[in-house]
């Protein structure tokens, strides 16, 4: 009861300590960031635990804390297929790309994904298109992360009595200021070590939340299952409320598509030792699986509590996690989880800022003028600042429909454009530059076309198929078809030797 009286202050203190930690990490990382290679690739000097936790926490991000429980609350077991498919995606990504990406980066001294794409296909157009895909995807992802961080911060500050009311714009300024400080100072070094902290918090918090969620419902898991079956047996059936086809499309988006997420797979290029890949994979899979307990337990517990009349109907499924933390978790646990939520959002946003800055400052200039810019490290820091401010302003003042449109350049867009070109093309010598370029252009056309023409004309893809999955299937078809129809490509001997390993 004593802690309950200070719940808001405790949560605020955890978040404030985390933000101070971010600033400290930025200052520490700045001393390790001496070149653009350090800024974008952490000097390729990271250990197993750092990369392993960074990979899985970048994948889960803020979505796992807020969106995941909301999906379970609304869709039941349908959402669990995302977790299963994402776990498969980790294994597929490391099998296809773990060693090759690291070897390509070492061989060509690459500091970005478009660098290794240009080396593989011997094409500057491929470099430019990959940079364009990354930049467009970053804008949508980053805007959503900044808005989420702003909304959560405002909710926390509004609940503390001694803090005056701060507008949503003010909370956005605070959030972006902290984000930009540690991104600009530390680059990807700050991001991966923040991911390390985030990963540790997520694993511990998920275990504690799981048991807290079970204790919040009468009869624990048995009570949750019985209540859910009585309301809607389909929601707890193997395919959940969404049906089989949508769950299968998630295999394409989250399973195969996991090998096409630049903020995740670029971390494979940062390892100190090429042979560390076999140790990094289990760290990532185990961390992700344990953290998914938070995703599952909160969603099911809140659904049961609402159905039993213990808790009022939620205004939206995404309110499941915040409502649970406010009413059913201990203040200390709520503080830990909210700090974890900020860590998830902040580190993911930093990853996007980093690869976005690389696309603008490093990759596009090399594709257009054939060389890197002078003072690349300084320009990278300036680009980070500009992209963050631009994304924040755009998110705040643009129509929600437009923000939602750019938000589609997320996981599905990266998957459709990058999986064929990188995950397949780095393992198949027959793949051509023309096929890679065609696949990237096709994926962008489909995503834009779906949102601008089909969706807003009042139509939808049959059987609720995910647009990202559709784009991935089409881009893969184009990639294989064009490659087989084109003359065999000429591959540099050193690149061919890496592909033969």
Report what the structure shows.
The protein contains 20 helices and no strands. It has helices at residues 2-5, 7-32, 36-41, 48-75, 80-108, 113-121, 124-158, 168-216, 220-231, 244-255, 262-265, 277-307, 320-327, 331-369, 376-397, 400-407, 411-424, 433-455, 467-485, 493-500. Residues 401-405 have low confidence and may be disordered. It has 501 residues and is mainly alpha-helical. The N and C termini lie far apart (62 Å).
Overall morphology? globular
Q: What top-tier CATH class fits best?
A: Mainly Alpha
CATH superfamily: Sodium/glucose cotransporter
What number of structural domains do the residues give? 1
* CA(first)-CA(last) distance: 62 Å
> Spans with pLDDT under 50 lasting ≥5 residues?
401-405
Strand content: under 5%
User: Using DSSP, what is the number of strands?
Assistant: 0
The main pleated sheet reads as:
none
Specify Rg, calculated over alpha carbons: 22 Å
Q: Return the structural class.
A: mainly alpha
Question: What is the ordering of alpha helices and beta strands?
Answer: HHHHHHHHHHHHHHHHHHHH
Predict the CATH topology. Answer: Sodium/glucose cotransporter
Identify the CATH architecture: Up-down Bundle
Give the overall average pLDDT: 83
Number of helices: 20
Helix content: over 70%
């Amino acid at each position: 009861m004593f802690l309950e009286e200070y719940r808001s202050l405790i949560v605020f203190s955890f978040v404030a300590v985390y933000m101070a930690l971010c600033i400290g990490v930025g200052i520490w990382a700045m001393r390790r960031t001496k070149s653009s290679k350090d800024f974008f690739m952490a000097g390729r000097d990271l250990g197993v635990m750092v990369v392993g936790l960074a990979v899985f926490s970048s994948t889960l991000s803020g979505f796992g804390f807020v969106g995941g429980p909301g999906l379970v609350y609304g869709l039941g077991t349908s959402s669990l297929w995302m977790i299963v498919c994402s776990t498969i995606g980790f294994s597929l990504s490391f099998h296809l790309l773990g060693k090759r990406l690291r070897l390509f980066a070492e061989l060509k001294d690459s500091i970005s994904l478009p660098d290794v794409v240009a080396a593989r296909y011997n094409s500057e157009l491929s470099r430019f298109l990959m940079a364009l895909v990354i930049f467009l995807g970053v804008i949508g992802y980053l805007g959503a992360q900044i808005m989420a961080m702003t909304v959560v911060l405002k909710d926390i500050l509004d609940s503390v009595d001694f803090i005056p009311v701060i507008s949503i714009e003010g909370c956005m300024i605070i959030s972006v200021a902290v984000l930009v400080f540690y991104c600009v100072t530390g680059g990807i070094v700050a991001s991966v070590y923040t991911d390390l902290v985030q990963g540790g918090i997520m694993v511990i918090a998920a275990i504690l939340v799981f048991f807290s969620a079970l204790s919040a419902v009468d009869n624990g898991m048995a009570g949750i299952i019985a209540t859910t079956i009585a309301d809607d047996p389909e929601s707890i059936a193997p395919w959940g409320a969404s049906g089989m086809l949508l769950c299968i499309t998630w295999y394409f988006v989250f399973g195969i598509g996991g090998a096409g997420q630049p903020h995740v797979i670029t971390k494979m290029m940062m390892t100190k030792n090429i042979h560390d890949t076999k140790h990094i994979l289990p760290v990532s899979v185990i961390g992700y699986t344990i953290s998914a307990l938070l995703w599952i337990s909160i969603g099911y517990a809140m659904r049961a509590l609402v159905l039993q009349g213990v808790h009022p109907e939620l205004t939206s499924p995404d309110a499941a996690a915040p409502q649970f933390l406010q009413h059913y978790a201990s203040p200390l646990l709520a503080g830990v989880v909210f700090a974890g939520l900020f860590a998830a959002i902040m580190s993911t946003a930093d990853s996007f800022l980093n690869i976005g800055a690389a696309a603008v400052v490093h990759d596009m200039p090399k594709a257009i003028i054939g060389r890197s810019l002078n003072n690349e490290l300084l320009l990278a820091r300036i680009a980070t600042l500009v992209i963050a401010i631009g994304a924040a302003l755009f998110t705040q003042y643009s129509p929600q429909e437009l923000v939602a449109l750019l938000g589609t350049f997320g996981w599905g867009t990266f998957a459709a454009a990058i999986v064929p070109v990188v995950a397949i093309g780095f393992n198949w010598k027959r793949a051509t530059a023309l096929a890679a370029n065609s696949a990237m252009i096709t994926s962008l056309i489909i995503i834009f076309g779906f949102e601008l023409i089909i969706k807003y004309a009042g139509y939808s893809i049959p059987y609720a198929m995910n647009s990202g999955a559709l784009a991935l299937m089409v881009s893969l078809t184009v990639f294989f078809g064009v490659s087989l129809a084109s003359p065999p490509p000429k591959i540099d001997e050193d690149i061919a030797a890496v592909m033969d390993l």
